[in-house]
Amino acid sequence: MAGGFLGKTLAAVSLPVALASVTVKSLGSCSVAACRNSLSSCRFHVNSNIMSGFNGTKENSHNKARTSPYPGSKVQRSQVPNDKVDWLVEWHDYNPVEYTAVSVLAGPQWADPQITNPAGRTGLVGRGLLGRWGPNHAADPIITRWKRDRSGNKITHPISGKNILQFVAIKRKDCGEWAIPGGMVDPGEKISATLKREFGEEALNSLQKSSAEKRELQEKLQKLFNQEHLVIYKGYVDDPRNTDNAWMETEAVNYHDETGEIMDNLTLEAGDDAGKVKWMDISDKLKLYASHAQFIKSVAEKRDAHWSKDSETGCPG
């Protein structure tokens, strides 16, 4: 049991090595400060009691990990005195050498891929608010229907001549921006389950329902989420939480209620991370969180619905 825990702890300590993007270089003072702060805040340190358990002296339990040159190379480590080993000790001048062997950078099957933001630098290292190094997976359900008049007829835009599409939008509590409902994929959870769960929690307040109400809600949602759907986007998204070492990736899926009958039987009610929820007309005037406006534009194009008054549409400014 103790051995398993120690293995996990040591594995966590080795994670910064996977962040190397060059063979050998010295980190700048700004990068070091950011790295140091993110590491200490994330508790990337070995518990003192565990380390001293080998021979009773903490100083002697971390000697081989500080020897130079690094095995199989001529790389010299930065010197770390005994009193500066612990991550909890402040050391503003810590400037470690960054090294990853060429054989590892070659990308063999047993090695992790480089953990750097695929879109480029963000000006921030560490994980920020994101729990995982590398991609953090989310799912965004885009629920749509046609806008109709009181007689049930589809409403067309007077200039484009195309039918107006509506989608369920939520107002995020954290930033106050309107967005598509959605959230993080739980460990071991299928994307399809995440899409349905997140829509229920944020747009229907399912977490606050009674057991009987939840069962009834699930039956209605099954009709919506079991029908044919469109995968609008899958991959990296431009998100304010992204850093150089952790970023958001999502799968945005459109479930369309063609007749509107399914959603007519569901009452929108904001819950969980949503402060408000409502049906919103789709057009190029939308101002949405992160990359959500781009997803909505894709839905409009695929459904041949109104987006812009202009014949040549472009991304919102």
TrEMBL record:
Residues 146-302 form the Nudix hydrolase domain. InterPro entries: NUDIX_hydrolase-like_dom_sf (IPR015797), NUDIX_hydrolase_dom (IPR000086), NUDT9 (IPR039989). Keywords: Coiled coil, Signal. It is an enzyme of class 3 (hydrolase). Residues 1-20 form the signal peptide. Residues 200-227 form a coiled coil. It holds the Pfam family NUDIX. Its EC number is 3.6.1.13. One of its GO terms (molecular function) is ADP-ribose diphosphatase activity. Residues 55-78 are annotated as: Disordered. It catalyses: ADP-D-ribose + H2O = D-ribose 5-phosphate + AMP + 2 H(+). Belongs to the Nudix hydrolase family. NudF subfamily. Monomer. Interacts with GLOD4. Hydrolyzes ADP-ribose (ADPR) to AMP and ribose 5'-phosphate. This is ADP-ribose pyrophosphatase, mitochondrial. It comes from Bos taurus. The lineage of its organism: Eukaryota, Metazoa, Chordata, Craniata, Vertebrata. The gene is NUDT9.
